[in-house]
TrEMBL record:
InterPro entries: Nucleoside_phosphorylase_d, Nucleoside_phosphorylase_sf, Purine_phosphorylase. It comes from Winogradskyella marincola. The keyword Glycosyltransferase applies. Residues 22-268 form the Nucleoside phosphorylase domain. Pathway: Purine metabolism; purine nucleoside salvage. This is Purine nucleoside phosphorylase.
Length: 270
């Protein structure tokens, strides 16, 4: 893997990806942030050596470099998921590349279902902690200790200082921002009524199919990490309505301007 990381990083440096400070991963239906970036370089995933290729039709497949909020950023427009058939190492490979390029902070976004029924669709949740229900770890491979500490501490995987800044920005801009626990499942099917009840018992406030592997690797690499969920549906097992993925994407698009405000203002303050 070290050789693959070096090859990918060298390719991107030659394309002009020079010393970004912040890495950003954009989730389902959350691509409009790109319009806020003064783009200086970009690379399609299928052109980057050793990179996985996005297979989900509503996920773009580009790595973008430029300036946002006065800082150099590298942005994943489209991410990878275990449900696409990728390994945990594939899913998190781009995080390792972004760290090698120079990032010190990783900001992650996702679309998630609201398990906590006090949270409503169209609102945002900053993730304070998570529950890994994906059945594996991106650190469970031979030789991982050559890339960082094998037994990574996860007592505080989400940076408290960034969370506090997100809360202040939300307050200043009248954005509803909850704080809670994100449960990550494999998918791609949505949850049953019984599974939503289980998630509630476990203490989850929201559920999705991403983010946790990337956050684990960010902590492995000692990056400051934070994540925001756009709540796209309400998961009430007693009144569960069928959900269409197009509805989820539409809700993500509707709520995205608030997330963009959070990310832009935070990056300015770093």
């Amino acid at each position: 893997m070290i050789k693959f990381i070096e090859e990918s990083t060298e390719y991107l440096k030659q394309k002009g990806f020079n010393n970004p400070e912040v890495g950003i991963i954009l989730g389902t239906g959350l691509g409009q942030l790109i319009n806020e970036i003064d783009i200086e370089a970009e690379a399609s995933y299928n052109h980057i050596p050793n990179f996985p290729t996005a297979t989900v039709e509503f996920h773009k497949g580009k790595l973008i470099y430029g300036t946002l909020g006065g800082k150099k950023v590298v942005v994943m427009q489209g991410r990878f998921h275990v449900y696409e058939g990728y390994t945990f190492q594939d899913v998190t490979f781009p995080v390792r590349i972004m760290e090698k390029l120079g990032i010190k902070t990783l900001l992650v976004s996702n679309a998630a279902g609201a398990v906590n029924l006090d949270f409503k669709k169209g609102e945002l949740m900053v993730i304070d902690d998570h529950i890994n229900l994906q059945g594996g770890s991106p650190l469970a491979f031979k030789g991982v200790s050559k890339l960082g500490e094998r037994f990574v501490d996860m007592s505080a995987p989400y940076n408290a200082e960034i969370i506090s800044k997100f809360e202040s920005i939300a307050s200043e801009h009248n954005i509803t921002l909850h704080k809670g626990v994100y449960a990550s499942v494999v998918g791609p099917q949505l949850e049953t009524r019984a599974e939503y009840r289980m998630l509630k018992i476990l203490g989850a406030d929201a559920v999705g199919m991403s983010t946790v592997p990337e956050i684990i690797v960010a902590n492995h690499l000692k990056l400051k990490a934070a994540a925001v969920s756009v709540l796209t549906d309400e998961c009430d097992p007693e009144n569960l309505e069928p959900v269409d993925i197009t509805d989820i994407i539409a809700m993500a698009n509707k709520a995205e301007p608030d997330m963009i405000t959070l990310f832009k203002e935070l990056i300015k303050s770093i």
